[in-house]
Amino acid sequence: MLQPGSAALAHSDALSAQIAAEIAAAGGAIRFARYMEMALYTPGLGYYSAGATKFGDAGDFVTAPEISPLFARCLARNCAAVLGTLSGVGSEGGEIFELGAGSGAMAAELLLALEQLNALPAHYLILETSGELRQRQQRTLADRVPAYADRVRWLDCPPRALRGVILANEVIDALPCERFRIGEDGIEYLGVGCRDGGFDWQGLPADAALLDQQTRIADALGQSLPAGFRSEWRPMLEPWLAGIAGALEQGLLLLVDYGLPRAQLYHPQRGDGTLICHYRHRAHDDPFLWPGLQDITAWVDFTMVAEAAQQHGLLLDGFTTQAAFLIASGLEEVLDPAAEADPRRRMEQGRQIRWLTLPGEMGEGFKVAGFSRRWDGECPGLTGDDLSGSL
User: Fold this and answer.
1) Residue ranges of the chain with per-residue pLDDT less than 50
2) 78, 99, 87: which is closest to 158 by C-alpha?
3) Where are the chain's structural domains?
4) What pLDDT does 116 receive?
5) pTM exceeding 0.90
6) Apex CA 377: angle with CA 115 and CA 122, to 5°?
7) Which of 37, 183, 255, 334 has a Cα at 20 to 30 A from 25?
8) CA-CA distance, 83 to 114, in Å (whole number)?
9) How far is residue 291's CA from residue 266's CA, in Å, rounded to a whole number?
10) Pick from 296, 239, 278: which is nearest to 42 by CA?
C-alpha cells in the first residue's frame, strides 16, 4: 500500500494524539462510534474535515456520479417525476435537497439533465459539513453550470419544509457506527483503547440499546447470533433520518448506498462484519491505520432505514438494486449518442455501464430505497425489481 508522506503522517499523528487524550480521559477506552466520529469529522483534522482529495482518481475512492454522468441522468428522470407535480409550487416545480454533495459532480449533471427534461428545480439545496468539499462543489458548479449558480444554495442544517426531492448518495455509510461481538459471556461492544503507541480493540459492556439491537437481529434471523460473531450497527441512524424526514413536507426521499436487509446483513456467514477502509483506492479492514487519512465505513442495514423512515411518517415507495434502478430509469435512453461514432468513447461508456450495473461491481451491492410523503406519483426507477418484501 502506498505510504503517506511526512506531512500527512504528522497530520495523522496530531489527530491520534487527540483521540488518545479522549481515551485517557474516558478511563482507557471509548466506543468505536466515537473513534470513527473523531477520525472522520474532527475539525481541521478528520478525514472529511481536512483538505485532502477524497473522490476520483486522485483520491481514495470513487462514487457513482464520479464514475459516469449516466448515474445522474437516470436520477434526473426520477426527480422530474416529482418536480412540477407538487401542490402549491410554481411552474418551475419544487426543490432538490442533496446531502453530502461530494465533488459537486452529481449536482452539476442533474441540473444539466433536468434542463433537458424541462424540469429544473426552483432551488438546488446542498447540506455539506466539510468546508473544503463545499468550496470544491462551488467551483464545480461555477465551471459546469454557471447559468444556474443563483439556484444553488448551501445550508448548515436541513430546511424546515421542503417540497420536492431529497437525495442522499453514499451518505448513510459515513455515519459513525458501533462495533459489537458475541463473546463467551454474551454480547459486548468492541471499543477502542490505546496499545503500543497506537489503538486496539477493547471489549466494553453492553447497554440496553445494544441488547435491543441483538434482539432485533435474532428476530430477523430466526436464531441467535453465534459466539465469535462481530458486526456493526448505527444507533445514530434513527435520529439522523428523523431530521431528514422532518424536512420533507411533500415529495420523495431517495437513499442510495451499499447495504442489505437486516436478515442478510447479519447472516452468520457474514461473521466478521462489513467494516472497510479506503486509502488511495485500496480497501482494507484496519480502522486504526493513519487516522484522518483514510475513509472508514460499513454497510447499511436497510431494514433499520425503512423502520426509521416509516416511524417518522414516510411511506416506502420501493427498494431495489442500483442496477435495477438505473435500468428502470431508462439507462439505455440517456446514453451519449456521440459515443456510437467514436470507438474510444463507446468503449469508455461501456466500461462505465458495467461498473454501475454489474453484480461484481456496484450493481448489486448498492441499493436504492425510496420514501414519500403526500405524493402519490410513480418513481420510475422503483418500478422494476422491487425487493421491499426482503426488508
Assistant:
1) 54-56, 58-60
2) 99
3) 64-174+238-264+299-390
4) 94
5) yes
6) 35
7) 183
8) 10
9) 27
10) 296
